[in-house]
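Retry 2 of 3 after timeout on previous attempt. Resubmitting structure tokens to design endpoint.
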């Protein structure tokens, strides 16, 4: 079908959200992606790191790939006014780390729990961790061992069910920082969602996370450093909140949808793709 469109003179574009499927790569995946890129007039990726990887892996010139960042989620998730801290018995003065989303092995939740439990006592006494999301079938959450009361030092709270979109804003508003300890990632909508709600992000320096969680918007750590996540959890507690909020606001300006749309329209119109890269 795509060959027929090309024969008819139709211009083709592809937005590459992930270089490879989460389930892993195969020869078939490589063949299809390489052939698809060869047919496209241009492809969009969400970060410079994805652009470099796609060009190298599939053997296409970089000027065929255009960076258009993932936009923010402003006004997408209105608050219902739920008191999430009260629901889970988390005192308002505690620094609340939040992991929210689907839970599986590549999300790194086991590493998060381990790092959190190894926080220095002075930090743990003033903190809480809330893990909220549905686990993949067969993925045992027994390692979490969530606390049942709300006033222990370093309490861990677990909501092991799907978080409804209608409740998502209130979970984020309750948090002081969002933790995304992914073991593999290309682009994280969760990081952008956290920034949209003004929350600093703790994440590994993987994929495009370093481009979205830029200086002052959170804390990035080396995924190969066994103590990196623990140190990042401590560092984010000490960030200057007003300064962090200003940096996040600047970043959200870069992720404005109108700005992104103008870039894509320029590419569709055939105007110098390299001039509209992020």
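Retry 2 succeeded. Sequence:
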């Amino acid at each position: 079908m795509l060959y027929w469109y090309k024969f008819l003179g139709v211009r083709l574009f592809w937005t590459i959200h992930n270089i490879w499927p989460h389930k892993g790569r195969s020869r078939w995946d490589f063949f299809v992606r390489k052939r698809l890129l060869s047919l496209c007039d241009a492809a969009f990726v969400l970060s410079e790191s994805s652009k470099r990887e796609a060009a190298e892996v599939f053997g296409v010139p970089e000027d065929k790939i255009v960076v258009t960042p993932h936009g923010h989620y402003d006004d997408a998730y209105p608050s219902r006014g739920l008191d999430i801290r009260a629901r889970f018995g988390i005192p308002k003065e505690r620094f609340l780390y939040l992991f929210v989303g689907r839970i599986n092995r590549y999300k790194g939740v086991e590493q998060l729990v381990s790092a959190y439990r190894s926080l220095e006592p002075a930090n743990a006494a003033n903190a809480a961790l809330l893990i909220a999301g549905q686990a993949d079938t067969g993925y045992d959450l027994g390692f979490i061992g969530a606390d049942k009361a709300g006033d222990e030092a370093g309490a861990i709270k677990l909501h092991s069910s799907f978080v409804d979109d209608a409740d998502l804003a209130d979970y984020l508003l309750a948090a002081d920082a969002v933790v995304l300890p992914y073991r593999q990632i290309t682009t994280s909508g969760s990081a952008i969602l956290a920034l949209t709600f003004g929350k600093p992000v703790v994440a590994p320096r993987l994929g495009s996370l370093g481009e979205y969680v830029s200086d002052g918007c959170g804390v990035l750590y080396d995924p190969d450093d066994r103590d990196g996540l623990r140190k990042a959890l401590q560092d984010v507690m000490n960030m200057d909140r007003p300064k962090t909020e200003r940096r996040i606001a600047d970043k959200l300006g870069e992720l404005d949808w109108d700005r992104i749309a103008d870039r894509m329209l320029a590419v569709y119109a055939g105007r110098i793709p390299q001039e509209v890269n992020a």
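Attempt log closed. The chain has a mean pLDDT of 90.
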